[in-house]
Amino acid sequence: MDGFVYRIACNTYARYIEKEKRHEKILVEYIGQRIIEIQEHNKRDDSNLTILAEEINYLNKTHRAVVKMYYYERLKVAEIAKTMNISERNVYFHLEKAKIELREGVITSMSNKRESKSIKFAGMVYHGLAGSGGEEIDNYMSHQLPQNILYSAYHKAKTCSEIARDLKIPYDYVKTDLERLEDYDLIDRVGEDKYLTNVLIYEPNEQVLNRKHQIYTIYAKIVCEQYIPLIFKAMKNYDKDKIYTPKNDFNFLMWSVVSYACGFKLACNDGTNPLQKFYKIRKDGGINIAIAWLDVGFLWDNLAYLQKVFNLSGELRGFKSDQKVSWQLNTYMDGRKSKYFDNKITDYTAIQDFIKGSLPKDDAHLDIYKRLYDKCYIISKNNQDYVNLVVLKMSDVEFKEILPEMPAELRKLSKKLDKEIYEIDKTQFPKHKHALCRAWNTDVMCSIDFRTKILELLLLDGSLKTLSKNQMMAVNTILFNDELPS
User: Whole-prediction pTM value?
Assistant: First the structure.
């Protein structure tokens, strides 16, 4: 086998280096064997002629340069050292490293052990504070090469050459994208020459998703029995001087209150964010965790529940304007097509101005009104406009004090749920992501998927009623303000 590999290597290398030139003889030393002359007319297996060419492509710039100068240009080590401005010892070092990489690469390729692992992201979001470069990064990450680089270096740290070989992409192309990914803080340099992806990549699995959903349903039923009645009781005689719901619609109010209460009051930790230590401080000012999920190709409709629509969820906690806060939960059950991606702080400041009477209907504000009408945050009926959101004349802290505390029995069940979901979830991640997975699965009862399941059950048993089209556009949104709509 070594002799056969050797012949392929020599002949392929001669073609690869300079196709337009055909030398009658070429001098090549390969994988530690002695220097010998190889006649170019030696028999070749054309199906393997590109193997070495590909492997040389995967070498880094320095290794390729040394190989070219030593084997093809036939420069002496001292001449190479002078040309590259490095020591002769370093020239020998790079030659040996290159030979080892070429030997392993050729043998692996000839044994058909390497296959290109092309993947595609179904989506990518950030958990935490977004930075200023969001749109630019999103546009860049819509391309498959950076996605595949991130996935290649996800399960373990790899060099640029290893990633190039894994993807069957020339080293220089991979290097360019690696530098950009590193600049965007989506991949970390580990040691001198290896890279490790710092994006949390979900690999959806039918069995895992179905099992999690089964567990969510069991625990959500318990929450509906033990905690939800307490919320309804606390809000039964709500103070209309401090709480506004459009047309005094109690059902519309409770959709938002239940979602909000379960998101904050079902938390068992001490108020600290367990994900904080995993946040990446990015160069564009963002402080967050980047999350992506693979397009795995299975039919979502085969699941026992509609996980595909659950994936449209998201939560806005804390758009602030003059110390006033807005909150919104997005699920498949509302009518917002663009979900949290279309949330703008100007929407809420405009509502505040409308409530104060300082948003005149003139040409200067036509676009603002159009957007508020389109989002159904303001409804026009009989030539009268009214706010179609829940507005509270209190701080978010004051509102949380009104909401009932979590029963002791539920606190025990919450920790049990966290552990169960973590044990299932961690099977989707490499070991170096398990700590993040555990932190992510803290207070699962507050998670968006779990709260969505609660809303489903409450709608099913009649505790919550179906919303109108206009209400669905603005449901699960709360504006904390210093005055209520008139």
Answer: 0.72
